[in-house]
Structures are given as C-alpha cells and as structure tokens.
Specification:
- By secondary structure, this protein is an alpha/beta fold.
- It is built from nine helices and eight strands.
- Helix 3 runs antiparallel to helix 5 (107-115) and helix 7 (146-156) packs parallel to helix 8.
- The longest helix has 15 residues, at 4-18.
- The chain binds S-adenosylmethionine (SAM).
- Residues 63-65, 89, 91-94, 98-101, 103, 107-108, 125-127, 130, 141-144, 168-170, 175 line the site of S-adenosylmethionine.
- S-adenosylmethionine is lined by residues 63-65, 89, 91-94, 98-101, 103, 107-108, 125-127, 130, 141-144, 168-170, 175.
Length: 242
C-alpha cells in the first residue's frame, strides 16, 4: 500500500498534467507555432468592458464574461446597429458534475435578455436540470456527440439564422470544432460566431485550424485586459473582422 505522501504526490502530478497549459508538449507547441507562421496574425483587443451596458448585465446575473473575462465590449462592437439580434449560446451554466460547470444556470441568458429585450435568445447545455430551469428557449445538447448536435440543430433551426452564436460550453478543441462545423449553417450572413475562453496555449492551434479549414476568422487575444487569466482569448468566425 502506498504511503499518503506518495498518494499526495501522484494527485499533484495529475493536477499538473490536467492543467490546460500542460496538455500540449513543448515540442507540439513549437510545431504548431511553425505551422501557423504563415496563417492570419493574432488580433490584440484592448477595449475594456467594465462600463459597457452588457458588462454590467453579465455582472448582475452572475456570468463571468465581464469580471473574469473581458468580452462585453467586444460583443457590443459585434452587435452594434442590430436592435434585436438573434442569439444562440451553447453552455448556459450548471451546478452539476459537468466539465466547466460552476456558474448558476441562465446567468448569461438573463444578461443577453436585459441588454436585448426583444431578441430571440436560445440556449443549449448538456445539463438537463440547467436547461429546464431557465426562462429562455433551451434544449439539451452534448457538444462531443455528432448525433446530439444534429438533433439540436434541427430543434433550433426555426429560431435562426442567428446574428451571434457563442460557444461557452465544453472548452476543449474537439468539442469546439464539432460544434462549429454543426452550427455554422445556422449563422446569419453577417453574423458572428465566437468560441470563448480559449486557453493561451491554443492560439497557434486555432490559427492553423482556421487556415487549414479555410474558415474566415481571427484569434482575438485579450490577455492584456486580464493578465491573471490564462484563457482570455476568443476565436471569432465571420462577423466584424479586424
Ligand atoms: C462556463 S459554463 C457556461 C456559463 C454561462 N455561459 C455564463 O456565462 O453564465 C459551461 C457550461 O458548459 C456545459 N457543458 C459542459 N460540457 C458540455 C457538453 N459536452 N455539451 C454541452 N454543454 C456542456 C456545462 O454544463 C456548463 O453549463
């Protein structure tokens, strides 16, 4: 039987391995940097969100989009001039045992609603209790499952096309890519598709993906606005590019 000291060390090691920064070996990071050298450059976004109307709504309803991250002004910019944007958000908050759970269900949906009172707002989440508890239109969805994505697309199609699609669900690239491929047909011609909370270690990965898949998009690095946060990066597809 192992000593408790050894068990503690193994537990610590597991924590280190599971940190998003450490999921890519340094050689893979270097390979991605080389592969991305001729891809579109990163955009550095530095407009602060604190005073935006949307930022205040995110804070009021418990979403982390303004306080931990700094996305509100960016969204105000993307939706500027659209009075009633059609918004789809994947990942609506959950207090269950799901990846990236921990925020109360519906916080960001309430914030979108306060900022855009006449909008169509639709949500999706893996947590049945979460989507059942919110007051907006919402359905169950597992972003890692193409069958589930197909069912979800059919359920929400009549509410689109969407001016804004936000992926704030399972923040891992396999789920993000399956979701983009499934949801892009539901994006309005001038709409914006945004993948949130991209870890800084994945910037070159996303530059390569956009390039290889010939997707019109940019990686938006906002780390200067939140120096203590290591996932303050967005992938913007279509929308108002920089
Ligand atoms: C960061 S929270 C969303 C927070 C919310 N958008 C807000 O700003 O208040 C991430 C959500 O992703 C959901 N999620 C995790 N894995 C998922 C999956 N495979 N498919 C769909 N949703 C998933 C979790 O249940 C959780 O509600």
């Amino acid at each position: 039987m192992r000593s408790s000291g050894a068990e503690f060390e193994i537990a610590q090691l597991k924590n280190v391995i599971h940190e998003r920064e450490n999921r890519l070996h340094d050689y893979v990071k270097q390979a991605l940097a080389t592969a991305a050298s001729e891809a579109s450059p990163v955009t550095y976004y530095t407009r602060n969100s604190n005073d935006s109307k949307l930022g205040q709504s995110f804070d009021t309803y418990g979403s982390d989009k303004n306080q931990r991250h700094s996305y509100a002004q960016f969204y105000e910019d993307q939706l500027d001039g659209i009075e009633s944007p059609r918004i789809l958000e994947i990942g609506i908050g959950s207090l269950g045992q799901f990846p990236y759970a921990g925020l109360k269900p519906g916080g960001s949906l309430q914030a979108w609603r306060e900022r855009y009172p006449t909008s169509v707002i639709v949500g999706g989440d893996i947590d049945e209790e979460a989507f059942a508890s919110v007051s907006e239109i919402a359905f169950q969805l597992d972003q890692t499952d193409t069958d589930s994505l197909d069912v979800f697309s059919t359920q929400i199609a009549s509410y689109g096309p969407f001016d804004l699609i936000v992926d704030d669900g399972f923040h891992d690239p396999h789920a993000n890519i399956l979701t983009v491929l499934s949801m892009l047909p539901l994006l309005a011609p001038n709409g914006s598709y945004v993948i949130e909370d991209v870890h800084s270690s994945l910037i070159d990965f996303w530059r390569v993906v956009l390039d290889v898949r010939k997707i019109h998009g940019t990686v938006i690095d906002m780390s200067a606005l939140r120096p203590d946060t290591d996932d303050n990066v967005l992938v913007l597809i279509k929308g108002k590019q920089f």
